[in-house]
Design goal:
four-stranded parallel sheet, 4 strands
Length: 154
């Protein structure tokens, strides 16, 4: 059986999606669940750059080192490489639907659709705020990671 493969997508791939990737890697490892996990952005401004220093700091505080992550942009092959692509907000979901190849096989949805009571909501974008925004983002992606592990265990 092939393992589920998950791609998290936000705008620049330096805040929310790397934190979601880190949270799911940590949750899956803790649970012994085998998943392929990656993250990307719909925009290309930060390609090759590490996550925002505040994202690195909050992940580090939670015991996960994301300093080696590098931003990349979603590419056509991702729509068939991954079984699930989770957008972190509605605009990125719209953009993913727009750029998806006709033969795309990945299931596209909002990440917080996986969390009961959070359906249709966006993961908080901390980029223009203070450090506490990154803490909020971490809580949200961590909650989603727990829901994903539960979902893929069933």
């Amino acid at each position: 059986m092939n393992h589920p493969s998950i791609l998290f997508v936000c705008l620049g791939n330096i805040c929310r999606s790397p934190l979601a990737e880190a949270a799911l890697r940590m949750a899956a490892e803790s649970d012994g669940l085998k998943l392929e996990v990656d993250s990307a952005g719909t925009g290309g401004w930060h390609i090759g750059k590490p996550p925002d220093s505040r994202a690195i700091a909050i992940a580090d505080a939670m015991g996960v080192d994301i300093s080696g992550f590098r931003a990349r942009q979603v590419e056509a092959a991702d729509f068939n490489r991954f079984t699930h692509i989770f957008a972190l907000d509605a605009q990125n979901l719209v953009d993913l639907i727009r750029i998806a190849p006709l033969n795309a096989s990945a299931q596209l949805s909002l990440l917080l659709d996986m969390v009961p009571g959070r359906e249709g909501q966006a993961v908080a974008d901390p980029y223009y705020g203070e450090t506490d925004g990154f803490e909020t983002t971490w809580r949200e992606v961590n909650e989603a990671a727990a829901a994903l592990v539960k979902h893929f265990r069933i």
